[in-house]
Design brief:
single chain; 76 residues; mainly alpha; 2 domains; 3 helices
């Protein structure tokens, strides 16, 4: 194997590892400073709203009736 190819592969791997390390460091700095916490809290609130909407849909009687009709039509 050519030494030039080996050097290129090693540099590419080290560059990727360094990039990922810097990205993780930036992410943890945001969390430590409190900026990331607000973002996470907003994301949790959004997920709670989506879950509530999905629960309302699934527990709706018309949804359950449609599901039963679909199951009956599949079994025919």
């Amino acid at each position: 194997m050519d030494i030039g190819i080996v050097i290129i592969v090693v540099v590419a791997i080290l560059g990727g590892v360094a990039y990922d390390a810097m990205k993780m460091r930036y992410k943890y700095q945001q969390l430590a400073s409190g900026k990331g916490i607000d973002k996470l809290e907003q994301e949790i609130a959004d997920l709670k709203q989506r879950t509530a909407a999905l629960e309302a849909i699934v527990t709706d009687k018309s949804y359950q009736l449609k599901d039963q009709i679909n199951q009956l039509s599949r079994s025919s």
